[in-house]
Write a structure and sequence with these properties.
alpha+beta, binds zinc ion, N-terminal domain of TfIIb, 2 helices, 5 strands
Length: 86
């Protein structure tokens, strides 16, 4: 069983937003640290937290409350420049 030293977790911060991290369990039943602010989850390898944004998993669960990707898609298609429009 992998655990993280309490003193270590205390000083760890989310590299993305600087928010506090808390213990969580990943989709593969592995330990991970989840940011309580931006919901990014960082896996823990042999007790070593992998605090890399590139390696982080978005644990938000699709509960985005600030628009979401759908509106972005609409905007993209609307902005799509036609060929030879200059
Ligand atoms: Zn964060």
């Amino acid at each position: 069983m992998t655990t993280i030293e309490p003193w270590l977790r205390e000083i760890l911060r989310c590299p993305s937003c600087g928010g506090p991290l808390r213990d969580a369990v990943g989709p593969l039943s592995g330990p991970e640290l989840r940011c309580t602010r931006c919901s990014l989850a960082y896996r823990v390898d042999d007790g070593i937290p992998v605090l890399l944004v590139d390696e982080a998993r978005d644990a938000g669960g699709g509960s985005a409350s600030d628009g979401g990707p759908e509106s972005g898609d609409d905007r993209l298609s609307a902005d799509e420049p036609g060929p030879g429009r200059e």
